[in-house]
């Protein structure tokens, strides 16, 4: 049975006249009548009563009309969804963020993504360390990562979102808090709170490298897994921390931030996704995030 024959039958049943139905379908009457005859032959039942002036439904025709309308509506719905999927307007995406992006970008990004792609269902996972994000991307547990280099997986595509300068988070009563900026050498002998080395945090390696380049051996007192915990411990007076400037978005009483200078250091934030992913809704979400990040950078 051809789907077009179903449509022809529905129009004839609604018009109750072959001529009017043919006009509505923009076709000649003989092919229309032949198509309905073919449909009846395939079904083995008579669907229409015919006269020179009128077409009416048989009992079988009335029953078939209800089902035909449901089938056509279902096909139209499926076609509309297919078009929306192809356009990237529907789907599901899981987006993860490192700690600093969780606080500085996620609130604005979640709003922009919802506005731009209301048909896409988004899930967000914050406070993930870069190695955990890399593993989750590879396993397909997340679709997009706002993460820190280096990215060693050749199957991952990255886009630079911004370059964060490093700052020092200090307890507000710490002696260094009175300064307008802090040098790396000034952190010699200062208790430090860092992201966990055991979980292979990118920030752990960055902090050690920055200080050792300045001839300072870090005095690490606490290792934590989450940025929120790190800043909470700084607020509690347990030590200082070197963090991306975007962590300033996490405002806690008892914490002050000072630029890290001599040497000044930066840390990139990138968007990462699997290179073999060509989903339209993923591509649209990536562009929304890149545009939003570019807008907030100016």
TrEMBL record:
Domain of life: Bacteria
InterPro entries: LysR_HTH_N (IPR000847), LysR_subst-bd (IPR005119), WH-like_DNA-bd_sf (IPR036388), WH_DNA-bd_sf (IPR036390)
Position of the signal peptide: none
All residue ranges annotated as the HTH lysR-type domain in the record: 1-58
A GO molecular-function annotation: DNA binding
Entry keywords, A to Z: DNA-binding, Transcription, Transcription regulation
Pfam short name (any one): HTH_1
GO cellular component assignments: protein-DNA complex
Family: Belongs to the LysR transcriptional regulatory family.
Protein name in the entry: LysR family transcriptional regulator
């Amino acid at each position: 049975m051809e789907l077009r024959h179903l449509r022809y039958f529905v129009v004839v049943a609604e018009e109750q006249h072959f001529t009017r139905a043919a006009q509505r379908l923009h076709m000649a009457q003989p092919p229309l009548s032949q198509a309905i005859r073919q449909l009846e032959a395939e079904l083995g039942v008579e669907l229409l009563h015919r006269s020179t002036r009128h077409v009416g439904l048989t009992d079988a025709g009335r029953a078939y009309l209800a089902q035909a309308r449901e089938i056509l509506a279902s096909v139209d719905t499926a076609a509309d969804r297919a078009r929306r999927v192809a356009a990237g307007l529907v789907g599901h995406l899981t987006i993860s963020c490192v700690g600093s992006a969780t606080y500085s970008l996620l609130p604005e990004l979640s709003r922009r993504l919802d506005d731009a792609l209301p048909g896409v269902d988004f899930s967000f996972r914050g406070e993930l360390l870069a190695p955990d994000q890399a593993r989750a991307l590879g396993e397909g547990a997340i679709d997009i990562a706002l993460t820190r280099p280096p990215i060693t997986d050749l199957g991952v595509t990255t886009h630079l979102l911004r370059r964060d300068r490093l700052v020092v988070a200090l307890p507000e009563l710490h002696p260094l808090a009175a300064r307008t900026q802090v040098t790396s050498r000034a952190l010699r002998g200062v208790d430090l709170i860092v992201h966990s080395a055991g979980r292979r945090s990118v920030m752990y390696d960055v902090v050690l490298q920055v200080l050792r380049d300045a001839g300072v051996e870090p005095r690490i007192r606490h290792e934590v897994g989450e940025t929120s915990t790190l800043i909470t411990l700084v607020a509690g007076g347990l030590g200082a921390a070197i963090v991306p400037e975007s962590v300033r978005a996490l405002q806690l009483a008892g914490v002050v931030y000072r630029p890290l200078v001599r040497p000044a250091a930066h840390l990139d934030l990138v968007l990462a996704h699997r290179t073999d992913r060509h989903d339209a809704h993923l591509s649209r979400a990536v562009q929304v995030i890149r545009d939003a990040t570019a807008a907030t950078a100016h």
